[in-house]
Design the sequence.
């Protein structure tokens, strides 16, 4: 069971990054390189939190992060796009590749290029980014171009988190926390999708 991380302070700094599974093939005797897109690219997020009260949420968060080395953690992805009523999006049948078929969307809703979304498959979240703007037609069905390519085929009715996407994964080794005073701690960590 994944650990849902608590809300973090507004002063927290986030940095999303892509973890690429692409491969470059270079010819042995000269010529152009070939870039091969492969299944398995994913996201990671680096988080830097200002000093928190050690007696309040600071030490509890440290414990969750320590558990995150062997248990998955779930963190909301901060976005700066305007809030949109997306409806209740779910997977429309089985999708593979770089296009996600979605149903249950609000007709007329605009899904912007660069919008994050997460899909829940077999209890695990997978993060994707929309690569072209889509306006939902009447009927609430849309095909969303995404990056990276789907790591697992979707299942009909799988929940898609558009309004509040979340990243799920393990804490990368090396997180640290500082003791700024006997009563406050600051911390930083990196969370990478496990698959």
Sequence:
């Amino acid at each position: 069971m994944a650990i849902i991380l608590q809300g973090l302070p507004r002063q927290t700094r986030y940095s999303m990054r892509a973890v690429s599974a692409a491969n470059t093939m270079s010819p042995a005797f000269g010529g152009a390189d070939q870039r091969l897109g492969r299944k398995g690219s994913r996201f990671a997020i680096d988080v830097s939190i200002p000093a928190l009260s050690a007696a309040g949420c600071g030490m509890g968060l440290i414990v969750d992060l320590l558990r995150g080395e062997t248990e998955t953690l779930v963190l909301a992805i901060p976005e700066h796009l305007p809030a949109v009523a997306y409806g209740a999006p779910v997977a429309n049948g089985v999708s593979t590749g770089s296009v996600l078929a979605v149903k249950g969307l609000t007709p007329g809703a605009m899904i912007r290029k660069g919008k994050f979304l997460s899909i829940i498959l077999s209890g695990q979240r997978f993060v994707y980014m929309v690569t072209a703007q889509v306006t939902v037609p009447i009927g609430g069905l849309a095909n969303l171009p995404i990056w990276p390519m789907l790591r697992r085929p979707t299942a009909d009715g799988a929940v898609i988190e558009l309004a509040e996407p979340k990243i799920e994964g393990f804490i990368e080794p090396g997180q640290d926390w500082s003791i700024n005073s006997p009563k406050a701690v600051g911390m930083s960590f990196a969370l990478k999708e496990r698959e």
The mean pLDDT is 89.
